[in-house]
Amino acid sequence: MENKQSYETKNTNVLSDEERRSFDGLTIDEEGREQSEEDIRRAKQAETKGAYEYGRDKNSYDGFPKMKVYTFSSLGWKGKLVLATLAAVALGVLFFFGSLFLIGFSVVAVGVALLALLRKLF
């Protein structure tokens, strides 16, 4: 980002970015209208709010009807608790069936190894 120093042009004082942020007073925009810092802040907040609320009333984003977007941060503590419980149950099931699969695979592998050994002996 370019940091411009303040300079004067035709009786106009242009402020640098740092001076503009720290300035608390009345300014004139490019179209010649006077604006206070609070007016500028309100206009930017309204613009940002409008951009974030696009489609929120219709529960759709970017033109996809009836598509809801859930994020982890939007869940309350109850939602996070339910998600953690579901994750714990899923991991428990995975470990339970995974261990059964491992035991079954081991039994089959030992059986195949014994059969191969017995075929070589007889």
From TrEMBL:
Q: Give TM regions.
A: 75-94, 100-118
Q: Which UniProt keywords apply?
A: Membrane, Transmembrane, Transmembrane helix
Ranges of compositional bias, category Basic and acidic residues: 33-47
Provide the residue span(s) of the region labelled Disordered: 1-47
Write down what this protein is called.
Uncharacterized protein
Q: Which organism is it from?
A: Veillonella criceti
